[in-house]
Design goal:
Largest sheet of chain A: none
Helix content of chain A: over 70%
Oligomer: heterodimer
Order of helices and strands of chain A: HHHHHHHHHHHHHH
Number of strands of chain B: 2
Number of helices of chain A: 14
Structural class of chain B: mainly alpha
Radius of gyration of chain A: 21 Å
Strand content of chain B: under 5%
Radius of gyration of chain B: 19 Å
Shape of chain B: globular
Largest sheet of chain B: 2 strands, antiparallel
Number of helices of chain B: 11
Structural class of chain A: mainly alpha
Distance between the termini of chain B: 40 Å
Number of strands of chain A: 0
């Protein structure tokens, strides 16, 4: 029974991935392609935030670090003349190192303190981009970020990126997103994921059984920021404009809302949350002004009635049916 | 820096300090009593400013009357919000924070849909300039100081002298013990939220003629309010006042002498450093 369920689950996942790969065949409008590209970027950022939440601390420096990934790869390409395909991994490394410096002072704190301290240091970094015009472009932002370099593969036509060629962006974002999700999924099933669970349950208890809490927390946070940096880097080269304001806590709040409404307990939670909210936004396009109102109401309803998020709904229904059956018998 | 410049910066800093003390006292009260992080507190400030704008510019009322009316209306709204949204969130920091961000969206959009996004200005009730030892200061900025002083002193008298104020202080110290003594926690929570909302609205109404009024005033101020609350020690009301003035002077002096972004940076760095080195804040007790 269990095996059949597992098998079904994986077939479902593969079907969704296949559908995502075939989507540009059916959807040709650049507008919708843009919506889906942004959706993949949000999914990788939200899923990596959820990965850091699995150890029980909510980081508010996540979105500034995503921006750092974008700034790093844009500057590497613009100032050092690297190709996008080398700038991306280097930018991820740079962001991981900066994440160590940002989280180093935050880590002795826990809970709300961690939330606020990470907020504070992320904000200091964000304000640096606004303050220093020389590399970061100041408050006017970093403009004219080059598109990723064309891909040459022998025997195939050259794949070019540009505002008129959205399909390469679509596949780049989708592939990197799936790669990121795969790694995060494997990490969660590995020792690291189980340690994160232990740290969430009790800091002290895990310390007493020999887990080096500080080190594991740092590893989890840095890995999470590295995947956020991938999202930020694609974002930078896709939008070709980085503004410090874009990474103010508004976006951080949206990302947290996606994760919370989807549910932070399950791996699928942030994915469901992002897809739901992004599609909802498109559905409500005629009344775009009221979108935040609808978001806020959905959020309030979810927190009040389904505190574990939408992905806990099937389990809730099953429990309810079970209860009814027992009550009847 | 001349003495004149210094005087102007000092008056500005004092004004900002009073604005932040009015604003952050409510935050401290709500955090201290309900243990929730209410990021929607800035929206009460925004609604207070909008209330004053509606009563003065649209309905043509007297300044003081419209200030008091908008304080009362915002207090009623705050109590309703507490009853509907925050009651199940008591004691849960992160869920209450997320809930309050949802409320920010709801309140902002409601205001935008009624009044649009354009900046609005309110005519000052105190036109004119004052010359103090060579420095020219505008009367409207100076008048913020006595009025907010009246509100703050009134609040402290209420807190220290009245029965409800004693109940509030008891709940802040130990909710369970207070409940055992017969204090109604629900009533105290509503009262705290109402008073906090009214004080934020007072700050908004006082500053409305000096700055512009728009639907997006709330979030940046909330952020500063939280720096003040954490700096002062999250459940300490005197600490909040002290931190509000530190923050006000930093904002005024650093913005003028260096630049506004550096002032924000200093504030953020101050928050991070204080939370690491002295998590209980300047005058707080509990860690």
């Amino acid at each position: 029974m269990k095996h059949r369920n597992l098998w079904r689950k994986w077939v479902g996942v593969l079907a969704v991935i296949l559908a995502a790969f075939l989507l540009p065949v059916f959807v040709q409008s650049p507008y919708w392609l843009h919506v889906f590209i942004m959706m993949w970027i949000y999914i990788i950022v939200t899923a990596s935030l959820r990965f850091t939440i699995t150890m029980g601390e909510w980081s508010f420096a996540h979105v500034p670090l995503m921006g750092m990934g974008g700034y790093a790869s844009a500057l590497l390409m613009m100032k050092l003349g690297l190709s996008f395909w080398t700038a991306l991994p280097v930018a991820v490394l740079v962001t991981a190192v900066i994440a160590i410096f940002i989280y180093w002072p935050c880590l002795p704190t826990t809970g709300t303190f961690f939330f606020f301290t990470s907020f504070a240091f992320g904000e200091v970094m964000r304000l640096c981009w606004a303050r220093f015009k020389n590399p970061f472009g100041g408050q006017g932002g970093l403009v004219l970020i080059p598109a990723p370099n064309p891909i040459h593969i022998a025997g195939f036509p050259i794949i070019e990126f540009g505002p008129l060629y959205k399909i390469p962006y679509y596949y780049t974002a989708l592939t990197l997103m799936l790669f990121g999700l795969l790694i995060l999924y494997l990490l969660e099933g590995s020792r690291l994921g189980r340690v994160a669970e232990a740290i969430k349950e009790s800091n002290l208890l895990s310390q007493s059984v020999g887990i080096r809490v500080w080190r594991y927390k740092m590893v989890i946070l840095v890995v999470g920021s590295a995947f956020a940096a991938i999202g930020g880097s694609i974002y930078a080269h896709y939008v070709t404009l980085l503004l410090p304001v874009d990474f103010y806590w508004g976006l951080g709040v949206y990302i947290i809302i996606y994760a919370v409404v989807g549910g932070t307990r399950r791996f699928s939670g942030p994915i469901v949350g992002v897809i739901l909210f992004v599609l909802l936004r498109e559905l409500l396009r005629p009344i775009v002004m009221y979108v935040p109102l609808v978001y806020g109401l959905i959020l309030a309803a979810t927190l009040t009635f389904l505190p574990e998020g939408l992905t806990s709904l099937p389990d809730r229904i099953m429990q309810w049916i079970e209860k009814r059956r027992i009550a009847k018998a | 820096m001349t003495a004149v410049q210094f005087a102007q910066m000092f008056v500005n800093g004092t004004m900002l300090g009073f604005q932040l003390s009015l604003f952050a006292t409510g935050l401290t009260l709500v955090y201290g009593i309900m243990r929730i992080i209410n990021f929607a507190h800035g929206e009460f400030y925004m609604l207070g400013a909008f209330g004053v704008w509606i009563f003065i510019e649209v309905l043509g009322m007297n300044y003081f009357l419209s200030l008091i009316l908008s304080m009362i209306l915002v207090a009623i709204l705050a109590v309703l919000i507490e009853r509907i949204f925050f009651k199940p969130m008591r004691g849960h920091h992160i869920p209450s924070f997320i809930m309050s961000t949802g409320l920010i969206f709801v309140l902002q959009v409601s205001i935008v849909s009624f009044f649009g996004v354009k900046d609005k200005s309110v005519d000052t009730a105190f036109p004119g300039l004052v010359k103090l030892g060579g420095a020219t200061l505008s009367l409207e900025r100076l008048m913020v100081i006595p009025i907010s002083l009246i509100v703050i002193v009134g609040f402290y008298i209420f807190l220290l002298r009245s029965r409800s104020g004693r109940a509030m202080r008891a709940v802040m110290q130990d909710p369970d013990a207070a409940a055992l003594q017969g204090v109604s926690i629900d009533r105290v929570c509503s009262l705290a939220m109402g008073i906090g909302g009214a004080m934020a609205a007072a700050a908004g109404g006082l500053l409305a003629p000096i700055f512009v009024v728009n639907p997006y005033l709330g979030p940046p101020l909330t952020w500063e309010g939280f720096i003040v609350v954490c700096l002062g020690g999250r459940t300490s009301l005197p600490g909040t006042l002290l931190a509000a003035f530190i923050m006000g002077y930093i904002k005024s002096f650093v913005s003028t002498l260096v630049d506004p972004i550096v002032a924000l940076m200093c504030a953020a760095a101050l928050l991070g450093i204080i939370l690491i080195l002295r998590p209980q804040g300047l005058l707080g007790h509990e860690a």
